[in-house]
Amino acid sequence: MNTVQLAAEDLSLFGGDVWWLVVIKAVFCFAFLMVTVLFSIVWERKVVAWMQLRIGPNRHGPWGMLQSLADGVKLMLKEDIIVKRADKVVYVLAPIIAAVPAFMAIAVIPFGPAGNEVSIFGQRTSMQLTDLPIAMLYILAVASVGIYGIVLAGWSSGSTYPLLGGLRSCAQMISYEIAMGAAFASVFLYSGSMSTSAIVEAQQDRWFIVLLPVSFIIYVVTMVGETNRAPFDMPESEGDLVGGFNTEYSSIKFALFMLAEYVNMVTVSAVSVTLFLGGWRAPYPISSFWEGANHGWWPLLWFVLKVQLLLFFFIWLRGTLPRVRYDQLMKLGWKVLIPVSVVWLMMVATVRALRNEAYEIADIALYVGGAVVAILLLSFVADIFRDKREKAAAADAAKDTAPFDPLAGGFPVPPKPGQHLAPVPRRRSRSERELIASGGANTDSDREEA
């Protein structure tokens, strides 16, 4: 593996556009999200219908392509209901707080090279609204603000089940953002920058999905949990919480929550493309024989195709996997993703430090392999001692054979581990009851007299 050349941060290309060009680029970012959302809703319903051998939407527009537009009009024309016990100010602001941050992260996503590559009405500009030295921290901060909209929606409704849905969402997003941040840190170590344009430039020779496959897998899992999508859609689990945090919402406010969910899907997909899939760069077979694939307006095409591929992955998960339980969701976040991401980050940092000290690849592989073997040995020894403790606890529980009275406290309670219920008398069969009634032999009373 060759040393990755660190991209130099040159942000002087941003901030020099005239005001009307900035407005055009901002409108383009907003329109890109809205059009992608409208397409994604129809595409999701079509793909899931295809997976489930159904027809799907086919009434509104050619091939049903205007179905999402019809759904938006329908929601806007529905009656807007505000429950009596709701905190009206927070109740109305919550959908706005959830939707607005979803649009803000796209401002630092590069759709093309940072240089003056394209011409818009005679003005040369880059295909990115702006960039920051800490652009990825800006994306994390904006994503965290959206959590408040969901939590406040559950609290302000004045109902129990929306409150539970909001709390679920808060705990879920906080849990998965920790592993997401650790996955980002691995990219920062290899790119040497938190600027999105610099991260894409650092993938000129090799995409980070090849160099950091574990970080990519961790981020893919966390972005599904971050967007509350199936199989991690716990805040909206109808079977548990009626409808989740948006139970008491209707009309346009309910539409804003749905809009925020789909915009977040597009945003996290765009971030994944930027960090791991080469950003706006053309795929390998195309870029190898076509020099102009990464110039002009072509980078926008490659970027959109990669985003649509990840959106198809979201749809594929929804049509394939069942919803997990909430305890399984939290166990995956805290006991699997966070430890794996931290250990992987330490390994990446070690490799980068050794490469900076001019160590050879063979020496680095030896050190990393030795550390992995040591960790496996320690875990093996820990498993042996844990099994011994479990066997000893099982033996102690087996000695305690005293029957357990579930009604000792005045109300029925289940037995604790190691406690056993008293055996229930076996119900006599019909033939035995008939034999006893007729006074026949082989009854319990005959056996007692004998």
Which strand order does the major sheet show? 1-2
Shape: globular
By helix and strand content, what is the structural category?
Answer: mainly alpha
In terms of quaternary structure, what is this?
A: single chain
Q: Which runs of at least 5 residues are low in confidence (pLDDT < 50)?
A: 1-8, 445-450
Structural domains: how many:
1
Largest sheet features: 2 strands, antiparallel
The whole-angstrom Rg is: 30 Å
Q: Note the gap between the termini.
A: 89 Å
The total of beta strands comes to: 4
Percentage of helical residues?
55-70%
InterPro entries: NADH_UbQ_OxRdtase_su1/FPO (IPR001694), NADH_UbQ_OxRdtase_su1_CS (IPR018086)
Membrane topology: Multi-pass membrane protein
Main location: membrane
Catalytic activity: a quinone + NADH + 5 H(+)(in) = a quinol + NAD(+) + 4 H(+)(out)
Secondary structure: elements and pairs:
Blueprint lengths: L18 H33 L15 H11 L10 H17 L13 E3 L2 E3 L9 H22 L3 H32 L4 H6 L6 H4 L1 H14 L11 H4 L9 H26 L7 H6 L8 H23 L5 H31 L4 H39 L3 E2 L15 E2 L8 H8 L6 H6 L1
Parallel strand pairs: 3-4
Antiparallel strand pairs: 1-2
Features of this protein?
450 residues, 2% strand, mainly alpha, 4 strands, 16 helices
